[in-house]
Amino acid sequence: MTAPPAPAPRPVTLVEARRRRPAVGGGVPSPCVGVCRIDPATGWCAGCWRTLDEIAAWGGSDDATRLRIWAAVEARQTRQRGHSNS
To answer: What would the DSSP string read from start to end of 12-55?
Structure first.
């Protein structure tokens, strides 16, 4: 018997990330949830919804750039929910 596929992680929000794991020094927390798997169809991580470029840039990014990445993540989540509800 084959095990069923793992459910997709629930979309993460900036508010939840701040509550779950405050950033070092009070900055913008990472959206990483420890599910590091890039979806070949979208190019996004299945866990944090970032692209490989966004993941690679995160460590050297200032808070303004990190907030732009979060905005992109949340926009992707919203678009994806819209597609799944149609």
So the answer is: P-HHHHHHHSPPGGG-PPP---S---B-TTT-BBTTT--BHHHH
